[in-house]
Amino acid sequence: HHIPVWVDYKQEHLNTIHSDDLWEEIAGAMETATVIVLIISQEYYDSKSCRQELSYACDTLKKRIVPVYAPNQKYKATGWLGIRIAGQKYVHFGRTNFTNALDELLSVLIVDQKSMAIQKSSNKVTSTKLNEEENSLKNWTSEDIRKWFNDNHIHSDLITLLVDEFHTGTALIVYARHLKQFYQDEYIQILTSYYKIFNGKRLQTLDFITFVDALWRLREEYDPQSKIEDALDKCGKNQLHCSIKNSNEEATCL
Prior knowledge:
The chain is mainly α. The protein is 67% helix and 6% strand.
């Protein structure tokens, strides 16, 4: 198995104060690493630089750490280092022969490599699926759109009123976004058009809600940005609420 390894050979001893260039090189190596092998020793524990590196790897990068005890190593991790590696699977070269310990370490690293490969493959499949879904929406015909209306049990009057307004599936997504921003105005407009076309007949609220619900679900299924946009929208509303609340409190104080 070919496992590329980066080692900080430039550091002469553990208490060396890192230069900016060396910090950048170390950070870059950790950022691209699949797993970080940590050689446990008293010197490592005493080094402020090593403590900073491990903090960056664990807290910021969320990297997996594999602690390794070297042969004839009497030191046992305690304090901040003991807390950091608690619960981690470690390899101890002093408790078995070197070959067996090395095989154990390699098996851990190979498993991590495979996990990373599976994750990348999964991400690629997900991305491909999203692209395929987007393309399929663009290729929707009038029959596909009418089928979508029927499959979602949209009232026949609303189908008559709206179905010919959409020529692609993506148009439905765009309309769903528009409806989210201008719900009240759009509802009044549809209500008015419905009343005119069907000779004074009133649109039932539940029928309109069924249509809107179907649009929401279509958007969530085919639009990968929908959850992000909804979260940002919610965040914006919360900030607005806080601003209004703070303004009211300030006005009260005045």
